[in-house]
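note to self: dont lose this again. the chain is below, predicted strucutre after it. 495 aa total, dont forget to put it in the shared folder this time
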Amino acid sequence: MSQAPRRINTQRSLNRPTEQRPTEAPASRPAPLQGQPDFFEEPSVPHPEQRPRPAAPAHPAPAAGTGRNGGSTPPPRRGGAHAAPSEPPRRRSAKPSAKPRKKKKRAPMWLPLAVTLAVLAVISGVVVYAAGMINRVEENLKPEENAASLVEEIQTLEEYKGDVVNILVCGIDYEDGRGYSSDGTNDGMTDMILYCQFDIKGGALRMLQIPRNSLVATKSRKITLSNGKTYSASNYQINSVALSNGGNVAALAEVIYDQFKLPIDYYVTIDMQALVEMVDNFGGIEVYIPHDMSFAGSALKQGYRNLDGASAEFFVRCRHGKGYSNSDIDRLNMQRYFYAGLFKRVRSMGVTDVINQLPLIFNNYIHTDMDLTTIAKMLVSFTRIDSANIMLAQTPVFMGVPNVGKTDSFDGYSCVVPDAGSIAELLNTYFRNYTGPVSAEELNLVTNDWPHGTASTSANVQFVGQLDKESDDAILSGDTDVAGATTTDGQAAGQ
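---
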């Protein structure tokens, strides 16, 4: 049985009570969203075959409360039973009945009218509500009016639009006491940088993790792009680019395009304060933990667990203790298991789940330059991509002097140095299918102005299908305390 982790630091900007609000689990999960446009439905492009998955057995609704890791018990899975087809209407006999029919009691004449009006009222109300909700969502998702837009030069070339969509996802972290901002209280660093490439033509999703402390500037704290434009990086690291340029995510996108030669069509920013609430709004997320974790009084046990918001925060933030000799790099590897669990949960989303997550938008936790139509397309398309075609990798880096596992420090800031040769190989293999190969020399990475070792980290290419298998193996072996846990193909724990 796992121990419920405590908050890592209650004085941080994630100012939430340590007590967990109980979440009631619905008796059944609503049907997934249907009827949305799909990026992958092109007449000339065959849709990749989906592997059939047997339906999970129905489970009784658990009582509200907290899970064994401090998380709320997740909603039960829907059973695979289908309603029996209705019988065809019987024909009336041509012969008159020998016995006189008993006259049925007629419903009041006003009842059909009342029912009709009630239905119309409900429909009208839903339409009005939905229209108003859409407007509110659109208004809240839009970046600030003065926010810079992505320049056209960094977007996907015109001849490949429709084949691939590239999105920069940034998790913005506000943590008291770092002192990177002008007022010395909150930093607003982009501590999670995830480059997502939707291969529409190939029916795949490829994601690239960029370590937050990757070197992007020289000792002048200035980044010089290939076109001569300059940007600031207050701590020499990539996570400070947006903040150092007025909170401009478009500046970070330009730097990534220039240094890594990766086109970017849209961006999404997520306040990391949203993590706890998102997980709790889902009723917890089931995640495989590959090894025991323990640091500063918080702990999680190896196995397939249901994590509540506080547990999930510890899981994705931890970078110390056993299994973290490479600190942030090992944390990136661990976060992939959370992504796998999150993807699995998103694939089962229903209308209620969507509504439950709306506060994240209304609290201004999420901003994007995508319109709602594009977002709907992306979401539906994502749910149709086989997990075997969802890939995760990270940019290889030199981790300081003299060995991997240590970072070099300048002026109090530790940095890792991009391995241009390994990065070029990674990009050419997985991310430049439509734009052609690029050499290490063509990448505008800062590699020579900082001391570093001779061994770099691995790109660690993994597919979500591999991560799902680890989860499935844990479930089948009984290494779980999640009631009613089933594998991705519907097998129950211990079978």
